[in-house]
């Protein structure tokens, strides 16, 4: 009976093998949609060692399918997990698949969409239920909000980080190991090496607080105060393209049109003018606080608070005030 | 090396004029000047550098509206040798799945060592088309590249794929599809010579019938606006932000006020 077909949520792995933060949020959303629509909710984890993440995911949804797929240990995951997931969907017939809208979720959604011929609603910033998911998206860098639905009774939704707070279910669910038969027809891409950058702990898209530096920070040394403020606030460090192009900070930390799109609770912008290419990456932050020397900088038009002055005086004062408050 | 770069004309973000047509909720392309999608320019720059180092040439492939040739000429002026534009009234309003099928079908008849695509577009922002194209064509898929190092003699390519904690070095046989990021390097400006040369370069236009032939990934599949898998129900401007509070006090007092504000909002 089509009306009862379940909602599936993909459990993405964090680098340490636990469940990625984005998946705790997407799973919470899936559970809420299941309650609203009277649908069962099923989590799926497909990995070389799926157990840890599968048990994490079972804190959020009543039933989790865990597939052990050794190939992902030393091969790029997107195509492999996508093929296994598409085969599992063919067998179990879910109605909807929810995934995170980060790099891993996008790779996966692209593969599954192409294999299953399913449509995808992307970058959801809100999802409600009306005989199927009703998806709100922020388009043109936050200039417009659109509401869409799938035209079929099935499809994929990719969900942005930080659109919902993760909340475990009242009672933990069960983990069912299962297998998916069949060849992996798509070519496998070998991982020949893994290189860790120093001091990067989590994807910047998932951070609740971001302290970002722009051209006004002046150089790599200037980022020390950005780092310290981020640490004091328990947040992540971001940057503008100008700072990245100058080699002051890695590209992975860049926010904006050709970098990451973020939606933190607090965006603290230091020496950032707020040019449109940066604005589109951060303007949906709940609270924006800017420190800038120029009262006419574009960021003065969309920040909640702007402190006018020299960031090398204000940022250390802010650090002191935060540390005083923390005791 | 023969490299195909997927490019998309998008509304110029800097114009600030992007809007949807109220009659069908599609992008109002007449309202905004088009530019080459920024992430596609990084892909094109990387492709040009690779052909400069290893020989060969770069071909552009795009599915876009009939006004796209002007934008494509700008990409040709950067140094691509030729281009193929798939344009068809029936394709207006295509979703990502339809775009994926059409691009895969267009690539199927071509010969290449690498296909390069930008990580996402500044208009749709889905970031799922490259993975889908690789899937339909059975190509190795190497995403989020910060470095692309082909070994033409061995017939393989290595890519540094950006991860949250650093990068992975991926290796696959060619032909392969690689997703380009800004980390590959600043795109060049077209030279005057390049702009002049672009005028006489071949820009082939194909219709849906030309690409959706028997055996192609688009043959028999639902395509274009009529087959869209999603429907826009409405669109509105987000609620305006409250007026900006401006603090001009000396550093210590300014810092005290900011911390107080953050505490009021329960951020700290």
Describe the structure.
- The complex is a heterodimer of chains A (327) and B (268).
- Chain A is an alpha/beta fold and 327 residues long.
- Chain A is built from 8 helices and 15 strands.
- In chain A, the strands form 2 sheets. Chain A has a 9-stranded mixed sheet, sandwiched between helices. In chain A, strands 12-11-13-14-15 form a 5-stranded parallel sheet.
- In chain A, helix 2 links the parallel strand 2 and strand 3.
- Chain A starts with 6 loop residues before the first strand and ends with a helix.
- The relative contact order of chain A is 0.11.
- The model of chain A has no long low-confidence stretch (mean pLDDT 95).
- Chain B has 268 residues and is of the alpha/beta class.
- Chain B has a 9-stranded mixed sheet with strand order 9-8-7-10-6-1-4-5-11, with helices on both faces. A two-stranded antiparallel sheet of chain B has the order 2-3.
- In chain B, strand 7 and strand 8 form a beta hairpin.
- In chain B, helix 2 crosses helix 5 and helix 3 packs across helix 4.
- Chains A and B meet through helix 3, helix 4, strand 5, strand 6 and strand 7 of A and helix 1, helix 3, helix 4, strand 7 and strand 8 of B.
- Strand 15 of chain A pairs parallel with strand 13 of chain B, so a sheet runs across the interface.
């Amino acid at each position: 009976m089509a009306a009862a077909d379940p909602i599936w949520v993909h459990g993405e792995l964090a680098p340490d093998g636990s469940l990625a933060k984005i998946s705790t949020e997407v799973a919470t959303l899936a559970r809420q949609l299941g309650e609203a629509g009277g649908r069962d909710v099923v989590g799926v984890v497909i990995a070389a060692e799926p157990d840890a993440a599968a048990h994490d995911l079972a804190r959020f949804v009543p039933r989790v399918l865990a597939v052990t797929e050794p190939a992902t240990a030393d091969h790029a995951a997107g195509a492999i997990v996508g093929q296994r997931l598409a085969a599992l969907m063919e067998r179990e017939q879910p109605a909807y698949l929810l995934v995170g809208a980060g790099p891993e979720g996008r790779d996966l959604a692209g593969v599954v969409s192409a294999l299953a011929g399913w449509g995808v609603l992307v970058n959801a910033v809100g999802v409600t239920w009306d005989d199927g998911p009703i998806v709100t998206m922020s388009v043109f860098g936050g200039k417009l909000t659109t509401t869409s639905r799938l035209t079929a009774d099935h499809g994929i939704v990719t969900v942005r980080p930080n659109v919902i707070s993760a909340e475990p279910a009242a009672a933990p669910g069960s983990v069912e190991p299962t297998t998916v038969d069949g060849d992996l027809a798509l070519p496998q891409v070998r991982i020949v090496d893994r290189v860790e950058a120093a001091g990067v702990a989590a994807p910047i898209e998932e951070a609740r607080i971001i302290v970002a530096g722009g051209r006004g920070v002046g150089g790599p040394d200037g980022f020390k105060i950005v780092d310290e403020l981020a640490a004091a606030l328990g947040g992540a460090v971001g940057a503008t393209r100008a700072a990245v192009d100058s080699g002051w900070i890695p590209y992975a930390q860049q926010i904006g049109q050709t970098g990451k799109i973020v939606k933190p609770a607090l965006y603290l912008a230091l020496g950032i003018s707020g040019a449109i290419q940066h604005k589109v990456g951060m303007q949906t932050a709940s609270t924006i606080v800017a420190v800038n020397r120029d009262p006419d900088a574009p960021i003065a038009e969309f920040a909640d608070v702007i402190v006018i002055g020299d960031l090398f005086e204000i940022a250390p004062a802010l650090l002191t005030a935060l540390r005083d408050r923390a005791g | 090396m023969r490299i195909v770069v997927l490019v998309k004309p998008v509304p110029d973000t800097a114009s600030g004029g992007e809007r949807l047509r109220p009659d069908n909720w599609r992008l109002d392309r007449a309202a905004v000047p088009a530019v080459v999608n920024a992430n596609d320019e990084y892909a094109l720059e990387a492709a040009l550098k690779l052909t400069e180092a290893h020989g060969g040439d770069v071909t552009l492939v795009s599915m876009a509206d009939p006004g796209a040739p002007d934008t494509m000429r700008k990409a040709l002026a950067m140094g691509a040798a030729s281009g193929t534009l798939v344009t068809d009234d029936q394709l207006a309003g295509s979703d990502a799945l339809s775009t994926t099928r059409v691009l895969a079908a267009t690539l199927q008849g071509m010969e290449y060592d690498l296909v390069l695509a930008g990580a996402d577009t500044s208009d749709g922002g889905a970031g799922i088309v490259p993975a889908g194209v690789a899937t339909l064509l059975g190509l190795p898929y190497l995403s989020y590249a910060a470095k692309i190092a082909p070994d033409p003699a061995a017939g393989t390519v290595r890519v540094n794929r950006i991860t949250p904690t650093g990068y992975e070095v991926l290796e696959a046989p060619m032909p392969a599809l690689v997703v380009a990021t800004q980390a590959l390097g600043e795109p060049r400006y077209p030279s005057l010579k390049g702009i002049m040369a672009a005028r006489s370069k071949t820009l082939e236009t194909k219709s849906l019938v030309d690409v959706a032939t028997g055996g192609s990934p688009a043959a028999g599949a639902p395509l274009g606006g009529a087959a869209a898998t999603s429907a826009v129900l409405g669109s509105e401007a987000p609620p305006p932000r409250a007026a900006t509070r401006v603090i001009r006090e000396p550093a210590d007092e300014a810092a005290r006020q900011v911390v107080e504000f953050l505490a009021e909002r329960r951020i700290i």
